[in-house]
Automatic annotation (TrEMBL):
Annotated source species: Bradyrhizobium oligotrophicum S58
PROSITE patterns: ABC_TM1 (PS50928)
Primary localisation category: membrane
Family matches, as SUPFAM superfamilies: MetI-like
Coiled coil: none
Superkingdom to which the source organism belongs: Bacteria
Family membership noted in the UniProt record: Belongs to the binding-protein-dependent transport system permease family.
Name of this chain's protein: Putative oligopeptide ABC superfamily, permease protein
Amino acid sequence: MQRFVAIRFARALLTIALVVTFAFIVLRLSGDPALMIMGPEAPPEVIAAFRKAWGLDHPIWVQYLDYFKAIAQGELGRSMRDGRPAIELVIERIPATLALTIPAFLLKMLLGIPAGIYAALHRGSAIDRAVMITAVAGFTVPSFVLALLLVLIFAVQLGWLPSGGQDSWRHAILPIVTLGFGGAAVLARFTRSAMLEILGQPYIRTASAKGVPWRRVITDHALPNAAIPTVTILGFMVGSLIAGAVVVESVFSWPGVGRLLVVAVANRDLAVVQCILLLVAMTMVTSNLIVDFLYGLLDPRLRSKGAEA
């Protein structure tokens, strides 16, 4: 078990390091922050002073080492726009993002899991086909297209809900539905597939042949085993709560972390972008670690395989 945990932690740290490295290199190759912030009309000496003040005049490998040294000391940098610590700007936006993502996550589970189970238990029926058609539509339609469609229908044509902002709880309805619908579609598809696979196992047929009531076969045997692959999807969804809100927050002008990321990327505010990407990476890695540990507790064979990997 100790080796299993050690391997998982080592992989998690490696993943975070790779994400941070990739973001660091891409951000510095995509444009000069000094020109973006100071403007191309700024005098050369002003731009040079800006680069020197923020360490941008050093070779990229020196900047890279300095950045990792700062992370090791708990320093995530300051915004090039207003000089505030990047972590403060991100923390200010987290409540707004959670106000969307947590209800959306609950909506995904309340819609997707029951729909997938019901579709599997009524395979081939009209309801099964309707669930799968809806799931495929929700899975394939981009979130920004769905968001614009909802705005067109419920905000523009019907006038029932506002199209953006954060003034009241009514402003959160359309973003939550947009975030929840796609995730519910994914959950419905995976839950249905997992249930169908379990229902086709010999022990299910054996339990039915022995006269065990079908309701008990489902609740005692099918559902617990079908829940294992579903945990993986839920873990991924928990890890992507912040990353998944980027597009939706931008469309609905919601002042969360996702919108902050878009603005920071446009302004080449390196410290803010790196801080958000580090937060996203840590969230996803942590959720995956929890899923791995749950798997290890539920199935000891996975612990032995993980130790051998």
